[in-house]
Amino acid sequence: MFCSRLFVPLQSKNMKREFWYHFVALLTVAIWGSTFVFTKMLLQNGLSPAQIFTLRFILAYVLLEVGTLVAGDKVKWLSNSVKDEVLMMLLGVTGGSLYFLTENASLVYTTATNTSLIVCTCPIFAMLLLKLVYPKSERVTKTMVLGSVIACLGMAVVVLNGRFVLHLSPLGDMLAFGACICWAFYSLMMKDVLRRYGTIFITRKVFFYGIVTILPYYLIVPGFPPIEVLLRPVVLLNLLFLSVVACMLCYVMWNWVIGKLGAVVATNWVYFNPITTILFAWWLLDENITIWFLLGSILIIAGMVLCNYKK
Fold first, then answer.
1. Quick one: which of 92, 136, 128, 120 has its CA closest to 247?
2. φ and ψ at 222, to 5 degrees?
3. How many CB atoms neighbour CB 129 within 10 A?
4. Residues 56 and 242: beta-carbon distance below 8 Å
5. Which of 43, 20, 42, 39 is CA-nearest to residue 31?
6. What is the DSSP code string of the chain?
7. CA torsion angle for 301, 302, 304, 305 (degrees, to 10)?
8. What is the pLDDT of residue 7?
9. Considering the entire predicted model, what is its pTM?
10. What is the dihedral of CA 256, 95, 299, 166, to 10 degrees?
11. Closest-CA residue to 256 (of 183, 191, 189, 186)
């Protein structure tokens, strides 16, 4: 009798804790969904995608370092081994420089619709990759697979928005697929390093190596925006939001969520990305919300409920 009374509050406490993990995942993806809108505003002010990425990561890295020092924590600069340091560099590439370069470059050669559809299928590839590498620890049920497929279908309905015509562009589509695979490998490697390092340390490393590995790009495409452009209020405010909120805070939250929910469950929240993008575009850019958006949103929510269903 005593054990049954003790079990109920423990179960309730675990449910509340898991609810907050999912809420943080949703909040992170919602913020990331808004970045397409804020990035578009910066592009309209003459900044290139690579310049935006570099400025975001530099500012986020500096702020994270300063925050660590102000908090009085001892700053750890290097990983425990050369192997782990290489892993941190690969995280900076797959979750930073290469991911953003392939995603943004794909927009040059193919449509935004194609890019969104391919990149947002990342949860499926992440699920397959994680199940292949960690067959025992990453439990994937039939219900989870069905939910992921339904959510993916809903994401496609949202992105296509009633225009079921895709323009094939092999180079652009392959670049978008490259971005998708980058994020899947980022999730895979993050699961490994979270066992040995704290979230803040890993995030600092991701920013640092993201900055270092983007530098060779400027040997091919040199140039940086003049200071008068960067000091425009619209540019400065958007850069601050993208750096402080979408980079520094969101990367810390996302890496933490992967550690709590597992890479498969956490990555499934990426399906919500198009929903928040369209909502922010409706709010800030006066873009229309259609019946297809509502239908797709319902499918995504239904799919996520199935993904997280527990008997």
1. 92
2. -75, 165
3. 19
4. yes
5. 39
6. -HHHHHHHHHHHHHHHHHHHHHHHHHHHHHHHHHHHHHHHHHHHTT--HHHHHHHHHHHHHHHHHHHHHHTTPPPP-S-SSHHHHHHHHHHHIIIIIHHHHHHHHHHHHS-HHHHHHHHTTHHHHHHHHHHHH-TTTS---HHHHHHHHHHHHHHHHHHHTT-------HHHHHHHHHHHHHHHHHHHHHHHHTTTS-HHHHHHHHHHHHHHHHTTHHHHS-----HHHHTSHHHHHHHHIIIIIIIIIHHHHHHHHHHHH-HHHHHGGGGGHHHHHHHHHHHHS-----HHHHHHHHHHHHHHHHHT---
7. 120
8. 44
9. 0.82
10. 180
11. 191
Indicate the residue type of 5.
R
Biggest alpha carbon–alpha carbon distance for the chain: 72
Tally of residues, the chain: 311
248: which residues sit within 8 A by CB, 6+ positions away? 60, 63, 64, 203
Sign for the CA dihedral angle at 105, 37, 34, 247 comes to: positive
**Which residue, among 193, 191, 182, has the nearest Cα to 138 in the 3D structure?**
191
Q: Are 25 and 256 in contact, with CB atoms under 8 Å apart? A: no
Predicted confidence (pLDDT) per residue in 241-262, tens digit: 999 999 999 999 999 999 888 8
In single-letter form, the type of residue at position 196 comes to R
Radius of gyration of the chain (CA): 20
pLDDT tens string 49-98: 889 899 999 999 999 988 888 776 677 888 999 999 999 999 999 999 99
Question: Which residue is listed with tokens 């996302």?
Answer: 254
Quick one: tokens of 235? 């540019």
Extract the tokens encoding 49: 């995608």
